[in-house]
Design a protein that fits this description.
The chain is built from 4 helices and 8 strands. It has an 8-stranded antiparallel beta barrel with strand order 1-5-4-3-2-6-7-8, surrounded by 4 helices. It is globular and about 45 Å long. The longest helix is centred in the last third of the chain and has 14 residues. It has one domain: Hypothetical Protein Pfu-838710-001, CATH 2.40.320.10. It is an alpha+beta fold and 174 residues long.
Length: 174
């Protein structure tokens, strides 16, 4: 199933302040997920297999690397843990990089929030405004991201253009 996302990723060393704001706003806390994202060497876009205790998906997405709100076109498929799929993708494409993170997941309406601790990279927050059925629109998604960016008082210097996978690859000299 495909959908439209507008998302922001930023460095964040004050997870407690973000948690407090989210809970004051009545956010639904989904839980703490230990996620291992295996990125494959896809010929276009990004292809990753997410293995977690809450979220398990095969995810294909296309997105520009830019700071601040960015649009992603996403297709997801629920993954039930069968190792044959992971083995097939590994043999077919090869593994590009593995991202290991602890992720707190919250929702307010159609906006998903991640408070992340990424192994080898540090602490982050993500704001992901989601339009699953085409009824919200890109402009509203951008406005929602901007609203939470201001509410969380995220400084421009903390905004990230790259994905965690790109950051890890850069660390490794790729």
């Amino acid at each position: 199933m495909g959908h439209l996302n507008v998302e922001i990723k930023a460095r964040c060393d004050n997870h407690e302040a973000i948690r407090k704001i989210l809970l004051e706003r009545g956010a639904d806390y989904i839980g703490l997920d230990h996620q291992v994202d295996t990125y494959f060497k896809a010929p276009r876009g990004r292809l990753k297999l997410r293995e977690g205790n809450i979220e398990n998906f095969l995810i294909f997405y296309e997105r520009e690397n830019q700071e601040g709100p960015k649009q992603s076109n996403v297709i997801t498929h629920r993954y039930n843990g069968e190792q044959s799929l992971k083995e097939m993708l590994t043999r077919m494409f090869g593994v590009l990089v593995v991202v290991d993170k602890k992720r707190e997941i919250y929702f307010i309406d159609n906006v998903k929030f991640h408070i992340d601790v990424v192994q080898g990279l540090g602490n982050f927050v993500e704001i992901e405004a989601i339009d699953r059925d085409g009824t919200i629109g890109r402009d509203t998604l951008y406005e929602q991201c901007q609203q939470y960016l201001k509410l969380f008082q995220i400084a421009k210097k903390d905004l990230l253009a790259m994905s965690y996978s790109d950051m890890l690859l850069l660390q490794k000299g790729f």
